[in-house]
Amino acid sequence: MSMKKEKLKILFFGGGAVGSYFAGMMSKNGHDISMITRGPHLEVIKNKGLTLETHWGNFNINLPVFEHIPRKKFDVIILAVKTYSVKQILAEVKASLSEHTKVLCIQNGIFTYKLLRKELPLQNVVNGLTYVDAVRVNPGVVKQFGQEARIVLGKNDAHEKEKSRLQEITSRSDSNETQFEFSNDIDRSVWEKLIMVAASGSIMSYSGMSALETFKLNEYIETMQSMILEMFNAAVATGVDLDKEFPEITLKNLLDRSDEIHSSLKEDLDHGRPLELDEILGEAIRVGTLNGVSMENCEKVYLALKRYVKGNLN
Predict the structure, then answer these.
(1) In a domain, 313, yes or no
(2) What does the pLDDT look like over 32-43, one tens digit per residue?
(3) What is the value of pTM for the model shown?
(4) d(CA 291, CA 235)
(5) DSSP line for 101-141
(6) Are residues 156 and 202 in the same domain?
């Protein structure tokens, strides 16, 4: 039976706000969804279902949740854990793969996709990213804001048959509440978000202030502007096709949106949690350095935040 006549079997590995939101809404929309999570979040969902408070209404979803991957073959496994946790779950993910399972990473940055291409069969690995504003307010309860809840996926070196399958997965998954998009240049898409997130989140963490407060001070604006340009040059040095106006446009967009920008890096820092610093900003620095690009401002901010990487530091 073709995929067009079947609901998708999808496993979300990670029950944070992003994974829970997409898992719940895709389950509501009729797909065969399972989610890996742990602790009180797991227990509440098992006993009371997953509560979603969204732009499109409030829902309670009877979502199958597990501590480990069930004995079942999935069309897609979507990795929704923090970047620093990916290495810990790779063995379990690899053991669950079939020849046709696609493993989609939606973490910020380029670290996860590079790691997956080294550790898993290339035929299984798909690159991606997500745009959604969501928070897990209590165990079993996720709140989502705004009209955007988007997953972008693609694979620049996919052959035509694989590309067709990815487009089919995109089409089957797409809805008002789960906006799936296929990118013909996913490397570009990933770098565009990486630069935006790494520059804004890192400079907010560096300043210790909100975006609104940080972006009023020229010192931080100039540092962020330099970081954007350095990461842009790093991307271009690896062959990524970014528009020459991208740094200027990105800076303007960030400054214009200063009253609405939130950063998971800053939130993790404020709560003493481990940081995705090395896997996002650090990876951009490594790529730039390897390709002869000066990363002076990125390195300055990275080194100032490095002591907080493992969390629980004052």
Answers:
(1) no
(2) 999 999 999 999
(3) 0.93
(4) 9
(5) -EEEE-SSSSHHHHHHHHHS-GGGEEEEEEEEEEEEEETTE
(6) no
